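Exercise: predict the fold of this chain.
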Amino acid sequence: MGARQKIAVLTYQSKHRKTYDTLCLLKAKGYQEVSVYASPFHYKKKFKPLYEHRPGLLPDMPSTEEVCRNFGYAYLEGDLEEFVILSDETVLICGAGILPDDFVASHTIINSHPGYLPNCRGLDAYKWAVYGGEPIGVTSYFLGKEVDAGRVIDRKCIDIEDGDTFHSLAAKVYENEICMLVSALEAPQGKCQEVLSEGYPLHKRMPREYEEQLFSRLEKRKAAGAERRKDGG
């Protein structure tokens, strides 16, 4: 394993912050055998969220193709079914649609989810965690038959500190999401924990009327946490 491990990164053909940060961390950790498979980005936003909580593109951020060229990584464009991704390549998900069952069954695929599974599955996991009082965290896991469930590599809860804001806490989630995606490459598969959905819903995008309550709900959680610490709990 290590630097000579073969890694396939699935992403989109457009500039993509998570892909950029993941490739930079892979390079910094010495991974050399990296191939990036970029597919067209078909999803179009139907509405603009009230609060953006994911980091945007950096100023003058190079394209994924340029990053790969500078790092000495392979870069290929096309639809997923056109790619030849060998079974000895560990696949990292940076951006992808629904993957075919046969592809999932025949490959080792790692995802890093910005939510503590199984509590917050699906889209806008961080927002739903804040809204519903669920643990705020990140989970890395091997893709299986069920969405956002299966063999969990690592789970981490993010502590809510007194000075945190909605966006500073979201930044902590994102930073851990990137770090845990790359660190999962070195995790022994035999120590994974099977985590089922256990009846937790698969969330869709958060409606605006729910988003309007996020800041106040986070402040209530911070106040409750401060009170518990005051009481020594």
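Check your answer against the key: The chain has one domain: 2-230.
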